[in-house]
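Lecture 7 notes: from sequence to structure.

We start with a single chain of 473 residues. Read the sequence below before looking at the structure.
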Amino acid sequence: MAVRPNTKNQINLKWIILGLLGGAIILAIVVAAFLPVWVVRWLGGKDFQRLASQQASSLLQTEGEFQSFEWSSFSVYTAGFQSRPGAVGPWIWDLQDIRTEISPRLLLDRILRFPEISIGRLALQAGTKAAMPKEAVIRAAEPKGASAELFQDVQVGRIEIRDFELIPSLGTSGWGAKGVAARIQPSKQRVEFLLQQGNIVTPSSWIGEVNLVEAKGRYSEPTLFLTDLMLKGKSGGTLEMSGEFIPSSAPQGKGRVTWERWPVPGGKLGVGLFEIPASMSGDFVLQELRNGVPVGKGEVRLVDARLEPGKGSETVLGVLGLLTGEPRLRGCPLTTAKATWYIQPNLYDVSEILAEAPGLLRAVGQVQIRGENLSGTIELGLEGDLGRKVNALTGGECFARLENGYSVQTIQLSGTLSSPKNDLQPKLTGALTRTAIRTGAQILEKAAGAQGTGDAAGAAVHVLKSLFGPAPK
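Now the structure, written as tokens:
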């Protein structure tokens, strides 16, 4: 009789266990049904948005925020991420149209990994600080609430950018880019990049905006290592660059630039002596950036160079052509045209200048440009007979020295780049004027049938001859 209560208790316990088990199963089913909804709501909510903004700010060394997230399974889209106005750090970021996927397995390891991120547009601008202050980095990555402790690390595999823009500034040493397709592979130690197509803005006004063929390198804070940069000019010339640069408010750098058939600055050279339309090839070694200005040395060779007197024959070559009547001085090819140049703040020093059209003209010398001011010395040689003719017309003032078959004249340069001057042109202009006056006097003598006495024409001839003297013999 005593066994019945135990049996009844066992039966009740069994039903209780079965009830609890059934309730657990029902609860598991309910949780399984609503967990994805809760996860999606949380991932698309303000809490996750704040957490992702903190992680991205820490990674990009800025202070910024994501716009709201839209989730579809483990794919996510956001309209963008932007640095806050006035944010400190090496760069100011503006990312738009961001799409990516997250690995579900890695979420269990508390690691947020993005195998590939697609960005519609990225605009990057140098920041107000060379590096983000330590306290700002801590503040950007500081967890806020229990949910902020969900992820231990954020990893990014590859980033594809359809439209990249780098805004030129002092922090980029004047370099910029727009409309560029980019591929970036970031890591904790460095960021590797490959840029293609688009346009590059250069710090040199004579280069201006050019087409990008390809640029690749890496960024390891705070240094940008440019492995190879190739640009193509609108006229078909090419320019290649490599080097190391530290973009900051006081930029530093060193590297090498080479170019082939690139347009010369302003299209022509000559500093008032003549004009040489040409393209150029050469190289330049950048030794340092001093106050944002390149310091270094290079060589340049002119390609398809042609010697011309210039518009209106106002140059030395133009006057020489009028004096001598030599047609080759009105335009001829240069077989040799090269120079060495050195640049530092407020100074261009162009030395070892050599330009030669064999048997006609040869120029050697050096030119210095300080700011806008021009100075220098050129040894200009004319073919022997032409030089002797000019020497006679100038009364023995010019081209009196003979060297290697040329009649040579030393020319002193002065003035500015926009208004160059030299000490030879006034002498040649005077000789040209005297020649014209004497020719006019001879015409007057023949027209009047006079020999310098007795009439108005003869009086005019006497005045002209007294002013300019007899023609040199």
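The CA atoms of residues 260 and 281 lie 4 Å apart. Keep this in mind for problem set 3.
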